[in-house]
Amino acid sequence: MLRLGRTQERNSGHRRGRRLHEGDSYLFLYNEIIDRIERLAIGLGVTHVAMESTGVYWKPVMNIFDPGGFIILVVNARHIKYVPGHKTDKKDFAYICKLLRAGLLKGSFVPNQSQRDLRDLTRYRRKLVQNLAAEHNRLILIFEDANLKLSSVFSDVTGKTCIAVIDHVVDGNTDPEFLASLCTHWRLKVIFETITSSCFLPPLQYG
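The line above is the sequence of Transposase IS116/IS110/IS902 family protein; the predicted structure tokens follow.
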């Protein structure tokens, strides 16, 4: 029976037919976890593992224990709150073991490995899309500070024409008529005068 922390683990178990209470601390290292699994499974005959779903710290240990044939319960910490004011790591892991022995713990749903991999990929993709949208908005705001209303002309600031305008501005060419002449698409030609007069204003001069 195992309780997870940030950098340490504490465990307790029971030998067949009687209870064995054991607590210790050690670094959260892969080799030590493997050695402990062999000791629990072979030496003590442990069949169940209970752990709190603390952040993401349970995931690597879950991946290590999963192939060992243990019955693993990843439990929501809110469901096993200890008495307020008396919560310590030692009391906490002993309390979890007590609940597990009594059959009072309900494990959270943990998808299989293929589903976990798919979730990681989809979440990563969503994060990349959000970051890309944030950078688009940031680009628009930067040029608006420089009196270039790109959003009033271009629906996509990463399009070919808009990128050409941005490149010339970065190179120091801020002439409104020249920038407007880069807008060769027929829809942009229709609003050529509007682009020249209001969208590509020269930078403000101070002093």
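Note on the example: The radius of gyration is 31 Å. Residues 113-145 form the longest helix (33 residues).
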